[in-house]
Amino acid sequence: MDMQSDFDRLLFFEHARKTAEGNYAKDPLDADNLTRWGGALLELSQFQSVPDSKKMIQDAISKLEEALMLNSNKHDTLWCLGNAHTSHAFLTPDQEEAKEYFDKATLYFQQAVDEDPANDLYRKSLEVAAKAPELHMEIHKQGFSQQGMGAGSSTSTGTKTSKKKKSSDLKYDIFGWIILTVGIVAWIGFAKTHMPPPPPR
What we know:
Largest sheet: none
Low-confidence stretches: 145-164
Number of helices: 7
Distance between the termini: 47 Å
Strand content: under 5%
Radius of gyration: 19 Å
Shape: globular
Helix content: over 70%
């Protein structure tokens, strides 16, 4: 992705966050709005440092859980919660702690599939969730081996730059898929709120 599209996405989701926050002040019992707010926070977390990203993801989880308290069968909220826990797990280097987040994500993805079994995106998310812990282990293993190699040997600047670029590309690939799926849910949520009224009978 180029920097302009990243900037456009940042502006779009920041606007969505502010709009949802304003709507919450008017109607705190709107589960759709809370889902959009949580989705926007989840998207915005991708542009933060790791500690800030984790904090923003926790905030998104809190909004999404609040939406579930209002409507426990809301499949798009369940799916977003799965994505939030997956994102948090990938930012957590400790394998055991990350596994807890992956387990929660799998549970939410399964609930979303149960609520809307025809949704291919939910089913695919559930399939990918099963492979996530292995991918997490591989990512963090590569990250630690790259740190060890950089500290112990005298490598050329070009090699370090290449490794940083590969690590950065992998991070963007993972977050790109997460962002895409959250973006689709946010778009669907916005589309639902702006649907024309049904024709009179």
